[in-house]
Amino acid sequence: MGPNSVVRPQSMLFTLYGDYILQRGGRVWVGSLIKVFAEFGLSEQAIRSTLSRMSQKGWLKVKRVGNKSYYSLTTKGERLLSEGAKIIYYGRQKQWDGKWYVLTYSIPENKRDIRYRLRKELSWLGYGMLGNATWMSPHDTRAEVRSLVQRLGVEKHVQIFAASHQGFSDHRALVKRCWELDSINKQYEAFTSKYRQRLDTHRRRLAAGEKIDDGECFVERFMLIHEYRKFPFVDPELPTELLPDGWLGGEAAAIFREYHQLLAAKANDFFDSVFEDAPGRAAT
Questions:
Q1: What are the helix (H) ranges across 71-141?
Q2: From the CB of residue 4, how many other CB atoms can be counted at a distance below 10 Å?
Q3: Each residue's pLDDT tens digit, 198-208
Q4: Closest by Cα among 1, 36, 22, 24 to 270
Q5: Among 164, 190, 206, where does a domain finish?
Q6: pTM of the model
Q7: pLDDT tens digits along 229-264
Q8: Are 155 and 112 members of one domain?
Q9: What span, in angstroms and rounded, lies between the C-alpha atoms of 7 and 180?
Q10: What domain range includes position 115?
């Protein structure tokens, strides 16, 4: 794959940790990362610079053993990936009892950076903005919201309610006001169009007995994951009765899971061939 001009190395590292490194103990030698990302045309300097920046931002921590450096996610980094992974592989609750969970806040201007973080993470949790300081969701994520609010230290500035909608528009009109579903569905359309074709091609090659290189499967699976992992952060995964006609989220999920599994064995073989964990990791 030629020089990568589409995705940033930091984003690629999060993808690699989420789907490969965390399943192998969570720590990896920097040399392994350099070998992996050479498959995408990224230089050693680019990887080392990205690791340094991510460490400074609190996403990664480093352990040195002799003259080798091994990187693992911090608690902050693990939390970000684990929240996204739950939705990627298991989805949010599908059954809906008609309740809405409404959150309001009044955060002072001198805490506007915290207010921004709250809004961003509420969006990741599937909340939509009804008004400037009023957000809502059909999902019962009160436990996650409680943890978020406590972590940000804004308990006294936030209130959450379980409510029923009494009017004056129907549910779908309300949803359209809170979420940009047309934009999200266009992203799903692009994903399904691209990867439906690639999945069919790969099936045909395997059925014909063609030998496919492990590295090729790794790169293909990596980019599949990398492109799909954005959806948990933009798609609120609304219950079926709230979705517009022609919604493609379910089809995209089905293509992702089938192709992800089809490529798994060879992709994992390639990664295991270059992966090196830190010696004595369990003792740290």
A1: 75-90, 112-124
A2: 16
A3: 999 999 998 89
A4: 36
A5: 164
A6: 0.81
A7: 889 889 999 999 999 999 999 999 999 999 999 999
A8: yes
A9: 23
A10: 99-164
